[in-house]
Design brief:
The protein has 78 residues and is mostly beta strands. 0% of the residues lie in helices and 58% in strands.
């Protein structure tokens, strides 16, 4: 996965996820996908603008990537 700077479509509010929920500010309707570090897609959903909480409590601790509209951001789940 190629890591690209956030393009304004979404922004991760807290990069180290320790409460089971990834909080993302979505600025326009877009599809977001969550990937393991090896590139396996775990989750994908179309989200509307606003604060979105994605439940990641079932995933093991580690590094993941949130991808949307050509941008990817690294996430650490603790």
């Amino acid at each position: 996965i190629k890591i690209l700077a956030a393009n304004g479509v979404f922004r991760i509010l807290k990069n180290k996820v320790d409460n089971g929920f990834l909080e993302v500010q979505v600025n326009q309707k877009t599809y977001l996908s969550l990937f393991e570090s090896n590139g396996k897609k775990l989750w994908s959903k179309q989200l509307v603008p606003g604060l979105q909480r994605i439940n990641v409590s079932s995933y093991p601790k580690g590094i993941y990537f949130l991808n949307g509209d050509g941008a990817a951001q690294r996430i650490q789940i603790q």
